[in-house]
């Protein structure tokens, strides 16, 4: 989830817990995994459970030019690599 205050742009993973009623996600049960992810710096992003047989992965666009980037193996400590994937996503409203 992105906390969209322009001065923070925090990115969080919410872990959730199994309960007798099903599944519960609490605002306090989260891990910060990034900052500077506001809509001004990262207009669009999506997460994939694992696109490269590693860990949690993110796909994101850059402002202005629509360059699609792939952030491999994202953790609270950062990511292992950022790859430029395409320059053809200017004007898209979502990545899915």
Structural commentary:
A hairpin with an 8-residue loop joins strand 8 and strand 9. Helix content is 0%, strand content 40%. With 96 residues, it is mostly beta strands. It contains no helices and 9 strands. A 4-stranded antiparallel sheet has the order 6-7-8-9, with no helix packed on it. It has a 3-stranded antiparallel sheet with strand order 1-2-5, with no helix packed on it.
Overall mean pLDDT stands at 74
Low-confidence stretches: none
Computed Rg: 14 Å
Q: Main β-sheet: number of strands, strand sense, barrel status?
A: 4 strands, antiparallel
Strand order, sheet with most strands: 6-7-8-9
Report the strand count.
Answer: 9
Distance between the termini: 15 Å
Strand content: 35-45%
Q: How much helix, percentage-wise, in residues?
A: under 10%
Q: What structural class should be given to the helix and strand makeup? A: mainly beta
Q: Strand-and-helix sequence, N→C?
A: EEEEEEEEE
Number of helices: 0
Q: Overall 3D geometry?
A: globular
């Amino acid at each position: 989830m992105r906390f969209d205050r322009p001065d923070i742009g925090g990115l969080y993973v919410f872990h959730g817990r199994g309960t007798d009623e099903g599944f519960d996600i609490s605002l306090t049960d989260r891990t910060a995994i990034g900052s500077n992810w506001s809509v001004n710096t990262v207009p669009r992003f999506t997460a994939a459970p694992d696109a490269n047989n590693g860990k949690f992965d993110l796909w994101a666009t850059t402002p202005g030019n629509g360059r699609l980037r792939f952030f491999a193996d994202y953790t609270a400590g950062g990511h292992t690599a950022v790859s430029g994937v395409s320059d053809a996503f200017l004007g898209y409203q979502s990545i899915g």
